[in-house]
Amino acid sequence: MNATETLLTDLVHDAAIPLTGAAQDYQPLLDLIGDARFVLIGEASHGTHEFYRERAQITKRLIQEKGFSIVAVEADWPDAYRINRFVRGQGTDSDAVDALAGFRRFPAWMWRNADVLDFVGWLRAHNDSLAPGHAQAGFYGLDLYSMHASIEAVLEYLDKVDPEGARRARHRYSCFENFGEDPQEYGYSAGLGLSDTCEREVIEQLIDLERRAAEYARRDGRIASDDFFYAEQNARLVRNAEEYYRAMFRGRISSWNLRDRHMGETLDALVDYFELREPGAKFVVWAHNSHLGDARATQMGRQGELNLGQLVRERYGKESRLIGFSTYTGTVTAASNWGGAAERKRVRPALPQSYEGLFHEAGIPRFLLKLTDASRLAQILAEPMLERAIGVIYLPENELASHYFYASLPRQFDAILHFDQTRAVEPLERTSEWNIGEPAETFPSGI
Fold first, then answer.
1. Is 303 domain-assigned?
2. CATH number, position 315
3. Residue 179 lies in a domain
């Protein structure tokens, strides 16, 4: 280690706020959040127990101590709304595990895991403990993969309130019938001009629903209003998903931007909706670091990508706080290919020239690092370094190319939470691959 690296390591060590597991560990973070209305909490993988657990702990404190009432997550709108109904004491699910049953598509472990189960149970208990009239905490999804489930939700709503409107919607959505339940098949065919698109039909359906908003929403008071909002968001999701699946075959940047713009639109719709019911409502957002760290501070941003964190900062400015996570090594729940089984994989020690490698050298197992000040550390860390991102797929044998990118951490986040050694999140349904786990790199000679 040269003198510059030693200096940087010492600066990180001195600025780091150790996390010991004490009840007040996150008080410095809550002080940093202050009066912000939007707190975006990321994760460096979609399968790390500590990220899920600690994010939930922070969110509980935000709800209890700072009056946050909306949790919006990187999940499909219909599946998350089922949880929302459960935690508010609505719907037909009798317990938290039933409320999570909607998460069936890959990667189910992202939300059907032990940590989310605990948090959903806590949300229900919290809401049940509130005095009548007190704002309950809700749970909403921001993503757009649920095109067919959202179509069914729109039709189910219209069947109840407007049978003739349901007939029109079925006619429009029948445009997708030739492609089965796989929206990527539609995207491939329509995106390459091999078939007509359904763009006009999904736009017409959303407009038709919005034109009748006043008529539908006033029928039975608050519950009718909630039901219309749910249906409207599903119709908007179908419109955006139709465009997204066509864009998938035009390139990564185009489809990525459409997806994050949709998440931004959904968050804005939640803000507008609750502004009429809970003026000044506060929002916690859960998603991957790559969605919540400001894209303008990354090499992807320089290539033309935007993300939700950037959109929130641009719209809400100082009312927002962006918080990231990182890890050095451990295990993670991930697949080897899209649609593959959940595996418990080893996370390779981070590269020495990365932020994660630097944080490991600081020698503190778990810590919080504030990045908002003008300290010498923040200035030095602003120089781009490698940063690791593990999604639902982890390819350790190709890690540098698949999972590292350059970023300026203090421009990307307001704070980072580093956990040097982490373990895989526990799926509610464990596969044989997960139970066995990955052999050590010395296998078989290391037995």
1. yes
2. 3.40.1660.10
3. no
* pLDDT digits 0-9 by tens, 355-390: 999 999 999 999 999 998 878 888 889 999 999 999
pLDDT digits (tens, 9 = 90+) for 1-21: 666 678 889 999 999 999 998
Number of CB atoms found within 10 A of residue 151's CB:
23
Q: What sign does the CA torsion over 126, 132, 133, 138 have?
A: positive
Q: Which residues pair with 76 in a beta bridge?
A: 143
Question: ∠ CA(275), CA(280), CA(281), 5° rounding?
Answer: 80
The predicted model scores a pTM of 0.94
CA distance 302 to 254: 14
Q: What are 199-251's pLDDT values in tens digits?
A: 999 999 999 999 998 787 666 555 578 889 999 999 999 999 999 999 988 77
Q: Does residue 209 belong to any structural domain of this protein?
A: no
- Assigned domain for 108 exists: no
Domain extent for 354: 3-67+281-436
Of 110, 114, 80, the C-alpha closest to 97 is: 114
**Could you tell me the end-to-end alpha-carbon distance of the chain, in angstroms, rounded to an integer?**
33
- Give a three-class secondary structure readout of the chain: CCHHHHHHHHHHHHHCEECCCCCCCCHHHHHHHCCCCEEEECCCCCCEHHHHHHHHHHHHHHHHHHCEEEEEEEEEHHHHHHHHHHHCCCCCCCCHHHHHHHCCCCCHHHCCEHHHHHHHHHHHHHHHHCCCCCCCCEEEEEECCCHHHHHHHHHHHHHHHCHHHHHHHHHHHHHHHHHCCCHHHHHHHHHCCCCCCCHHHHHHHHHHHHHCHHHHHCCCCHHHHHHHHHHHHHHHHHHHHHHHHHHCCCCHHHHHHHHHHHHHHHHHHHHHHHHCCCCCCEEEEECCHHHHCCHHHEHHHHCCCCCHHHHHHHHHHHHEEEEEEEEEEEEEEEECCCCCCCEEEEECCCCCCEHHHHHHHCCCCEEEEECCCCCHHHHHHCCCEEEECCCCECCHHHHHHHHEEEECHHHHCCEEEEEEEECECCECCCCHHHHHCCCCCCCCCCC
Domain tally for the chain? Answer: 1
Q: What is the pLDDT of residues 122-180, one digit of tens each?
A: 999 999 999 998 999 999 999 999 999 999 999 999 999 999 999 999 999 999 998 98
